[in-house]
Specification:
10 helices, D-Amino Acid Oxidase, Chain A, domain 2, alpha+beta, FAD/NAD(P)-binding domain, nine-stranded mixed β-sheet, 29% helix
Length: 361
Amino acid sequence: MIDFLVIGGGIAGISVAARLSHLGSVTVLEAEAGLGYHTSGRSAALFEESYGKPTTIALNKASKEYFQSADGGFLSPRGLLLVGRAQEAESFSADQAAMSMEPISISDALARMPILNPAVVKYAAYHAEAWDIDTDRLIQSFAREVRQNGGEVLMGQRAVSIDRRPAGWEIRTGSRQLEARILVNAAGAWVDEIARMAGISPLGFAPLRRSMARIPAPGGRDTSDWPMTFGTGETWYCKPDAGKLIVSPAEEDPSHPHDAWADDMVLAEGLARYEEFMTEPVTRLESSWAGLRTFSTDRSLVLGPDVDDPDFVWVAGQGGYGFQTSPAASQLVADILTARQPALDADTVARLSPHRFTKGL
């Protein structure tokens, strides 16, 4: 019998599997042909400590040292720029404060993002301590850790049935039957479906679609040193990517668990919002895609054993913060399952626990 069976090979699943592989035998089940296929593989992947709810920020801060030092480090400089129009003074100020950004002049903003339109951009703020995450290397590093500790990472294995047994769980895929003492639910947008399959009450997770477009480097410029740039209220953002630019309308459209794709109209509206702030028009799209950012009802991650069955463990509700929280979130789950004292404070741990939904935290 396996000690820990992890359902889901995105960043949440593979990171927690790596931590648990030091505690017992681990198997990861991933339905797709490769790791990080769905939301993890479609992320803008920025590490910014002050981005997210307080519980997310606590996880970000606790993850920073791992990102900087583990396996040679996973971060490279990027920077974060916030821009706003004249009529957005109040919301711009709120965003700036929430993300601990420093105001800068429009000329300084243009030096960092030279295609900004000074006739439109009237407010700007910047934070240098924002980094790109090498997402593929991070996923593969965690997967290598699992395998080095004797664990298995199985691709193309979708759970089709889950049954509770006296000693643990029996999980069937299309071609295999596995038994595990503890079942870890890290299935992304599918977490509530996995819970139902296991006879566990779902927690009401909401998958929200977010679209992305890749466009050529505006005006043929070198974009490599440009910051990730947000519009006030996160109504759009853009980020350099492999010599080009990715642009998102930053939508949160309710969806269902599936292999998501971009909505053409939503993408067009988002590109128009982006264009309003720029002097270079969008001339063509090279590609587009979408991912599902799955949130709990209070938009904090859900980490730990289920209220009714402690052998069913939630690693869910990453909501777009999966990569930047993964080192600390996975360590917290391992600490909880071994009754070790977590590095995070008790209040944060409680506000990340599935038990908060019954205690009203």
